């Protein structure tokens, strides 16, 4: 009886964790290649569980497109030294990210570098 109870408890524990793992998957992004773009930040949302950066960039045809970039929550950004004032609307940035597999205007950023007009 105890073995059966423990088996059911273990199964419930595994099943209850699977949706959390799926939620934190990067499966909707093509993580096999990087895309680099430059543009102007239009919005910054430092939220939990995910922060969002919206960047207006020109596509291959020269048309302006807004990209939604999904990052970790604000606490995760702070852990790696990113502060609230590091990137603001109006800032020019260079972004290296993984595009969404479905082709919509979204990506998973790897690096966001502010462009301040500093000499190289």
Question: What do these coordinates show?
Answer:
The protein has a 5-stranded mixed beta barrel with strand order 1-2-3-5-4. Residues 2-22 have low confidence and may be disordered. Helix content is 23%, strand content 39%. Strand 1 and strand 2 form a beta hairpin. With 120 residues, it is of the alpha+beta class. The radius of gyration is 19 Å and the shape is globular. It starts with a helix and ends in a 5-residue tail after the last strand.
Features of the shown structure:
120 residues, alpha+beta, five-stranded mixed barrel, disordered N terminus, single chain
Distance between the termini: 71 Å
- How much helical structure, as a percent, in the residues? 10-25%
Strand order of the largest sheet: 1-2-3-5-4
Poorly predicted residue ranges: 2-22
Could you give a short account of the major beta sheet?
5 strands, mixed, barrel
Count the beta strands. Answer: 5
Can you tell me the overall shape? globular
Fraction in beta strands: 35-45%
């Amino acid at each position: 009886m105890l073995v059966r109870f423990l088996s059911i408890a273990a199964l419930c524990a595994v099943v209850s964790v699977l949706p959390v793992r799926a939620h934190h998957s990067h499966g909707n992004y093509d993580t096999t290649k990087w895309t680099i773009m430059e543009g102007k930040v239009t919005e910054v949302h430092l939220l939990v569980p995910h922060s969002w950066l919206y960047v207006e960039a020109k596509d291959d045809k020269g048309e302006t497109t807004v990209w939604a970039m999904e990052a970790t929550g604000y606490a995760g950004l702070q852990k790696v030294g990113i502060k609230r004032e590091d990137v603001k609307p109006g800032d020019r940035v260079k972004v290296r990210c993984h595009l969404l597999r479905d082709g919509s205007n979204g990506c998973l950023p790897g690096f966001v570098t502010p462009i301040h007009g500093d000499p190289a």
